[in-house]
From TrEMBL:
This is Epidermis-specific secreted glycoprotein EP1-like. One of its GO terms (biological process) is response to other organism. Residues 38-156 form the Bulb-type lectin domain. It comes from the Eukaryota. PANTHER family: G-TYPE LECTIN S-RECEPTOR-LIKE SERINE/THREONINE-PROTEIN KINASE SD2-5, RECEPTOR-LIKE SERINE_THREONINE-PROTEIN KINASE. SMART domains: B_lectin. Residues 1-23 form the signal peptide.
Length: 429
């Protein structure tokens, strides 16, 4: 039976070991205060640079609205005279004010807190043997333990961006969400990547794009950069791919003729999916847009099929917003172009089909006809369905096929040569 002195000795030894363990943590606390940085950033953001740095990546506080800051990772170097781009954010939907703190605590938890101490975001790594924070050359922010093993990494928590080597996968992140309140998302599904419009009046997100598709079940998508080589000259190009797992090949996005390792894939605020590549050796204009899903030259789909191309409403032809469709005809397009105002809520529920009408547009389509499930019905039946649906702003109709798509969102209408593909826009009489 242990004596009291031996129990006390063991307790003191354990306390000493715990103290030593905590002493090994390379703690820090950075306060969001002081002068703002002088260099140009995307979106015209103000920023305060923080010490964690691994060229061309650095942690910062930044804001696009005064007093609302995000803890973020920026990409670019000062000497290139190219503006900073933000490739990761800790708190995308919960900005913090001036004097907020970013700290690695003695227990190993990485914490973003308001000035009053209230925690806004943390890695949840308390008491997990974390000893330090590092930014790897890939842009991966990691918390490692005393054996060098990663306890937490930012690559498991993407926001709107995938850096080279980063994946969407079950058990980790399965989607990217755009910055503007999450209006758009890219989601890993069993057949590949699907692009959705969120926050619309319909009961579920609207599909507007697909890529990296496979006939077999897809379990992961990894953004990769692979050098293309030959025996004489070595690497002559770098292929930017989406690697489809497990072992289902790749979807090639772009093939720059320079080292494109410093690239990222992002779902933009307008819903386009783009790749930006940073070429560090040059001193001017180091950024290049190397891929865009909606882009006549770089991408897979015409720009006119981007739902937000013409803002809330508009007719697009040859990559340009050319007209604002109204019941009185086509007017010159401007950013104020919008669909007719309809009764909503209870007012809509009491609206009869006789109180609404439609104006017709010939030779137009949008994303709904590409990805929505059409219904076999005649045009009068389609019109009746839309008239009785408060969320329906109009409908698309293929006259030769008798195919109907109700439209909870119209957005950009793409001009097409097939005059049997028409749209009907609802308005109140």
């Amino acid at each position: 039976m242990a004596t009291l002195p031996s129990i006390l000795a063991r307790f003191l030894l354990l306390l000493s070991l715990l103290s030593l363990s905590q002493a090994r943590v390379e703690t820090f606390t950075y306060v969001n205060e002081g002068e703002l940085g002088p260099y140009i950033t995307e979106n015209g953001a103000d920023y305060r640079a923080l010490p964690p740095f691994s060229s061309p990546f650095q942690m910062c506080f930044y804001n696009t609205t005064p007093g609302e800051y995000y803890l973020a990772l920026r990409m670019a170097t000062l000497r290139s005279e190219s503006f900073f781009r933000w490739v990761w954010r800790a708190n995308p939907f919960a900005p913090v004010p001036d004097n907020a703190t970013f700290s690695l605590r003695p227990d190993g938890d990485l914490v973003l807190a308001n000035p009053d101490g209230k925690i806004v975001w943390s890695t949840g790594t308390a008491n997990k043997d974390v000893v330090r924070l590092e930014i790897l050359p890939t842009g991966n922010i990691v918390l490692s333990d005393s054996k060098g093993k990663f306890v937490w990494q930012s690559f498991d928590h993407p926001t709107d961006t995938l850096l080279v080597g980063q994946s969407l996968r079950p058990g980790g992140a399965t989607s990217l969400v755009s910055r503007n309140g999450g209006a758009y998302s890219v989601v890993l599904e069993s057949k590949g990547l699907a692009m959705y419009i969120n926050n619309v009046s319909s009961s579920k997100p609207l599909l507007y794009g697909r890529l990296a598709e496979s006939s077999r079940k897809v379990t992961s998508i990894t953004f990769a950069c692979e050098p293309q080589t030959d025996s004489d000259s070595g690497a002559y190009a770098y292929e930017l791919d989406l690697v489809i797992g497990p072992s289902q090949g790749t979807a090639v996005l772009a093939r720059p003729k320079y080292n494109a390792t410093l690239s990222f894939l992002r779902i933009e605020e307008d819903g386009n999916l783009v790749v930006y590549t940073y070429y560090d050796p040059v001193d001017y204009r180091a950024w290049e847009k190397t891929y865009a899903y909606f882009y006549n030259d770089l991408g897979q789909v015409s720009t006119c099929m981007l739902p937000s191309k013409c803002g809330g409403f508009g007719l697009c032809d040859e990559e340009m917003c050319v007209a604002c469709p109204t019941k009185d005809g086509l007017l010159g397009w401007s950013e104020s172009c919008s669909t007719p105002k309809l009764a909503m809520g209870k007012k809509c529920q009491t609206t009869t089909s006789s109180s609404v009408d439609y104006y017709k547009l010939v030779g137009v389509e949008n994303f709904l006809t590409s990805y929505g499930k059409g219904t076999d019905v005649n045009v009068e039946g389609c019109k009746k369905r839309c008239s009785s649906d408060c969320k329906c702003l109009g409908f698309f109709y293929w006259e030769l096929e008798s195919k109907c798509w109700l439209a909870p969102l119209l957005g950009t209408l793409a001009k097409v040569s097939n005059s049997s593909h028409v749209a009907y826009v609802k308005f109140v009489k």
